[in-house]
Amino acid sequence: MIRLEISVEAMKKEIEDSRNQVTTNLGNLQTERSTWEETLLTMKDASITALDTAIQETKTQVQEELNVLATEKERWNKELKESVKIPEVVIFSARRPKHTTPTSGQTVIFTEIILNKGDACNKENGVFTAPYTGVYTFHVQFCMYAGQYVDFAFMANDKPFKISRIQRYSSSYFSCYSFDAMTIVNKNETVKIKIIFSSSSGTTLGESDSNYWNTFSGRFIQAI
């Protein structure tokens, strides 16, 4: 009986130890499971955050590209409208030279604007700036004192397209001379009257409000 009781106690202890071991292992498994769950949740949150960041960056990049395209589209539309814009009337007339004895190489500046439809004539520097590419015609009149002479040129973008001379031999009277020229001028190019040679002494040009004027005029004929 005593041996049987000892054996039973030993078995009970072994069973208890086994149960404790199983409980310990189950606890370890539960802890490990919790750790893995936390790790997976952390990885999930990190992945979601990274994905959200990537999506937001992509949306921002796409929006920036759309803004660039919208700006380009607006610029193209503006250029297209400008290219097909029907030219308006362009005509000007000016008088009263700033210098009555112009010198060689000087631009003749007509200081009084009579007509300036299109605002292309500048009375400060004597320059006409073409608002459209096309055919233009120009006219200049110089009123010369007797015994004087002047060589001048119609200049388009600083290149002569017509050169003329006025020479007054007689000392007994006063005369006015008119000259016309036609040329093709590109948009934003300039046209002016430039003195090539002039009398070295005495007043060359005369002007009277009631009788004779020195004038420079021009008009836009046709777009090309």
Name the features:
10 strands; Jelly Rolls; 224 residues; five-stranded antiparallel β-sheet; alpha+beta; rod-shaped
Summarize the topology.
Layout lengths: L1 H82 L7 E7 L12 E8 L3 E2 L4 E3 L4 E11 L4 E8 L2 E9 L7 E11 L4 E9 L16 E9 L1
Antiparallel strand pairs: 1-2, 1-10, 3-4, 4-9, 5-8, 5-10, 6-7, 6-9
Name the overall outline: rod-shaped
Distance between the termini: 131 Å
H and E order: HEEEEEEEEEE
Give the number of helices: 1
Main β-sheet description: 5 strands, antiparallel
Secondary-structure-based class equals alpha+beta
**DSSP strand count:** 10
Please estimate the helix content.
Answer: 25-40%
Spatial order of strands in the largest sheet = 2-1-10-5-8
The CATH class of the largest domain is identified as: Mainly Beta
Low-confidence stretches: none
Architecture of the largest domain, CATH level 2?
Sandwich
CATH topology of the largest domain: Jelly Rolls
Radius of gyration: 48 Å
Structurally, the number of domains stands at 2
Average per-residue pLDDT, rounded, comes to 85
What fraction of the residues are assigned to beta strands by DSSP? 25-35%
